[in-house]
Write a structure and sequence with these properties.
Elements (H helix, E strand, L loop, with lengths): L4 H4 L17 E2 L27 H8 L3 H8 L7 H14 L5 H7 L5 E9 H5 L2 H16 L3 E7 L7 H9 L5 E4 L7 H6 L5 E4 L10 E3 L2 H16 L4 E5 L5 H16 L7 E4 L4 H11 L8 E4 L2 H13 L9 E3 L6 H4 L6 E3 L2 H16 L8 E3 L3 E3 L9
Parallel strand pairs: 1-3, 2-3, 2-4, 4-5, 5-6, 6-12, 7-8, 7-9, 9-10
Antiparallel strand pairs: 11-13
Helix pairs in contact: 2-3, 2-4, 7-15, 10-11, 12-13
């Protein structure tokens, strides 16, 4: 069958900068992509000494134009069935892989979403919470053949960098934000920018924002009440997370609520930590002999609990006989330590997945879904509180 006019006609798509992703589909920066003259960048088996297979390679093998190859591979009905099958066979034989970035350029989309974490990369990749979030987001992004950009701050003095990199560059079609401080005014600017945005966590001061998270107050109250009601612990210390973050405030308030409801308000003590393992250890070390004033500690996360448990064991203080310990998160470490750590199981990966699915709905024009979603948590009761003995 003779080629149609579309199969004869050449077309040229201008080159443009596109988000770059490494082999995992994740990038911390936006750089120029590599394209052939047809506006498509590809990877595949070596062909004629090259490491990339282009539309021109397929066109040369099938005797049609690169424009016809592009239309055939995109399912256009303007290409004859015989020609389409021949092009598809040639593409398969050559190992052609279409670029999501190039398709995005043709559709006037960035072809990427951003995960914004307004803290340093060292902090992000040093905490297991962010690894669970990254896993949940990337799973959905990969299923949608979409690149994932991670935007962090270079240091603590450049608090706006994570936002500005995304908002000014137009490098993403939407963004997911997590771990923003209450004083961070840029969160409101981001949510009102017109860009599709989903926030992970609780943001009570942003009534119009789309958010997904857990009931930190209720969960912290529940784990505290477990120590009081099940194990008879009444002299409790709460080691809080940073109190400039809503999560830190909510988990502290849940602890205080449980203490007050059991008539123990005057015995409640709160010390602020920074969620790191060393923070938990240092807080217990600073208490010195004063640790004997407490028969239980409620930590705002498992990392701080683990750091404290190490020091307590070094000092010969028995857990849970002398002092009961509970954490919050349950990201794997809790099951590996000895004694195993009682904690609140937070499905961070599921939360991130739900946030990403909702983001894609908004990008696709579906705005009628949920705006505030609360995911259930459960207590994971093990040895450190006195269970499983």
């Amino acid at each position: 069958m003779p080629p149609s006019d579309f199969e004869r006609q050449e077309s040229v798509v201008n080159r443009s900068s596109v988000p770059y992703a490494n082999c995992n589909g994740v990038s911390e920066a936006t750089t120029g992509g590599t394209h052939d003259s047809d506006g498509d960048s590809v990877t595949g088996k070596p062909h004629n000494g090259r490491t990339r297979v282009t539309l021109r390679d397929i066109a040369g093998l099938t005797g049609v134009t690169p424009a016809a190859v592009s239309m055939a591979l995109s399912g256009s009905g303007r290409i004859s069935e015989d020609t389409r099958l021949a092009i598809q066979k040639a593409a398969n034989d050559l190992g052609y892989v279409p670029s999501s970035a190039a398709r995005a350029l043709r559709n006037q989309h960035a072809g990427a979403i951003a995960l914004i974490v307004p803290t340093t990369a060292t902090h992000v990749f040093g905490h297991s919470y962010f690894m669970h979030v990254l896993s949940g987001v990337s799973t959905v992004a990969n299923a949608r053949d979409t690149q994932l950009l991670i935007s962090t701050n270079p240091d603590q003095e450049h608090g706006l960098a994570a936002y500005e990199r995304v908002m000014r560059s137009n490098s993403a079609d939407g963004a997911i934000l997590t771990s923003a401080a209450i004083s961070d005014l840029t969160v409101e600017r981001l949510t009102s920018s017109g860009m599709p945005v989903v926030l992970i966590g609780n943001f009570p001061y942003l009534s119009d924002a789309i958010t997904v998270g857990i009931d930190d107050v209720g969960a912290s109250r529940a784990i505290t009440e477990h120590l009081i009601e099940r194990h008879g612990r009444t002299r409790l210390l709460h080691v809080a997370g940073p109190l400039d973050h809503q999560t830190g405030i909510d988990r502290r308030d849940g602890f205080l609520s449980a203490m007050e409801s059991h008539g123990l308000k005057d015995q409640a003590v709160v010390i602020e930590g920074d969620l790191s393992e060393i923070s938990g250890r240092e807080i217990v070390a600073d208490l010195g002999e004063g640790i004997a004033d407490f028969d239980g500690i409620v930590f705002a996360n498992d990392d701080m609990a683990f750091g404290a448990m190490q020091l307590l064991k070094e000092r010969g203080i028995a857990i849970p006989t002398d002092i009961a310990i509970v954490g919050f998160d349950d990201f794997g470490l809790a099951r590996a330590v000895s004694p195993s750590l009682s904690t609140v199981h937070v499905p961070a990966e599921e939360i991130a997945r739900l946030a990403t699915e909702r983001l894609f709905e908004i990008i696709d024009g579906t705005r009628s879904g949920w705006s505030r979603l609360q995911v259930d948590v459960q207590l994971a009761l093990r040895e450190s509180c006195g269970c499983e003995q």
